[in-house]
């Protein structure tokens, strides 16, 4: 009689807690995307297992609540997915277990999953930062082998670029799933030598790529608005890259010309003339410049509620947080120096 294995996957952060941010990405979004894909892979490829998620939407859970889900379900393994950050100065993959008295099974789970992930990401030149231990509550309080994974550094330009790539994401998710499956001794649903299975696997990956590349989401909406409002033709790919940043500057230059007769060349370059032309935007302001401010802050990972062109309390607090992060004077007013940091 086969034994059913329970796998608990934890998407780090969520809801009011965005986790680490960088270049328009938020840790909570990437973690949720990853565990949803892992769950799909487990259910399609392996038998004899049940996959639980601590969250399957953008909600906030306390660390204790996450562990409680796994403990109450009697899970056999607990995998907490995260993305790292260190002031843009580090990159690479690393895994963690609790630095207390862990079982040999916990060490085996970490070693197996870590080996699979590094093996899969080697072709992307992702550095191996090693198998580590730390006093992380989310792995400390579990009643089963638990591992926390840090896929890469969201605030490092190279890692950030990889975290966006569909092939990289798929390789990472496949590797985690295969590592857990090996540890648990899970059996595939079909003989891997069957050619039909190979075709299904390829189609599965293609479907996932197609879904991942659909131009939907908040960034895509912002890109569409920039195109429509400023007669641009940037690619709507739901990614915040150089093209979108340039479009923001063009929008700002257009608004400064229209509203304040600045006579700027609309070239998407935030140079000295554009900086000198910027005006102070503060609480109570409204309109397209406020919308541009809100949209760029959102793309950079700052929480401010609705992107509605209305400078309210949440926008002010987002500006203050950005100013604190970039070591500017913290006054909640978007002036020349703040715009310089945003667009320069």
From TrEMBL:
GO terms for cellular component: outer membrane-bounded periplasmic space. It comes from the Bacteria. InterPro entries: MurNAc-LAA_cat (IPR002508), N-acetylmuramoyl_amidase_3 (IPR050695), Peptidoglycan-bd-like (IPR002477), PGBD-like_sf (IPR036365), PGBDSf (IPR036366). One of its GO terms (molecular function) is N-acetylmuramoyl-L-alanine amidase activity. GO terms for biological process: peptidoglycan catabolic process. Keywords: Hydrolase. SUPFAM superfamilies: PGBD-like, Zn-dependent exopeptidases. SMART domains: Ami_3. Residues 67-181 form the MurNAc-LAA domain. PANTHER family: N-ACETYLMURAMOYL-L-ALANINE AMIDASE, N-ACETYLMURAMOYL-L-ALANINE AMIDASE AMIC. This is MurNAc-LAA domain-containing protein.
């Amino acid at each position: 009689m086969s034994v059913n294995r329970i796998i608990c996957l934890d998407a780090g952060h969520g809801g009011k807690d965005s986790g680490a941010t960088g270049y328009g990405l938020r840790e909570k979004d990437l973690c949720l995307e990853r565990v949803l894909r892992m769950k799909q892979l487990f259910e399609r490829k392996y038998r004899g297992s049940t996959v639980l998620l601590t969250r399957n939407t953008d909600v906030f859970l306390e660390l204790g609540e996450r562990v409680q889900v796994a403990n109450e379900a009697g899970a056999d393994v607990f995998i907490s997915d995260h993305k790292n950050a260190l002031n843009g100065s580090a990159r690479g993959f690393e895994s963690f277990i609790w630095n207390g008295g862990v079982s040999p099974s916990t060490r085996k789970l970490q070693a197996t999953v870590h080996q699979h992930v590094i093996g899969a990401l080697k072709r992307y030149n992702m550095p191996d930062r090693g198998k580590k231990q730390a006093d992380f509550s989310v792995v400390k309080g579990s009643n089963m082998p638990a591992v926390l994974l840090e896929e890469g550094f969201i605030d490092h330009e190279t890692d950030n670029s990889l975290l966006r790539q569909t092939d990289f994401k798929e390789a990472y998710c496949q590797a985690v799933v295969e590592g857990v499956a090996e540890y648990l001794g899970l059996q595939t649903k079909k003989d891997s030598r069957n050619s039909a299975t190979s075709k299904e696997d390829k189609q599965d990956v293609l479907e996932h790529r197609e879904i991942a590349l659909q131009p939907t989401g908040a960034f895509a909406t912002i890109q569409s608005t920039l195109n429509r409002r400023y007669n641009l033709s940037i690619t709507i790919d739901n990614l915040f890259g150089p093209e979108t940043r340039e479009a923001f500057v063009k929008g700002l230059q257009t608004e400064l010309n229209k509203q304040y007769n600045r006579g700027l060349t609309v070239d998407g370059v935030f140079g000295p003339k554009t900086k000198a032309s910027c005006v102070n935007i503060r609480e109570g302001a409204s309109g397209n410049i406020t919308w541009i401010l809100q949209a760029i802050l959102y793309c950079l990972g700052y929480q401010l509620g609705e992107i509605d062109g209305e400078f309210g309390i949440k926008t002010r607090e987002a500006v203050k947080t950005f100013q604190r992060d970039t070591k500017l004077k913290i006054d909640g007013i978007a002036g020349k120096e703040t715009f310089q940091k945003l667009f320069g």
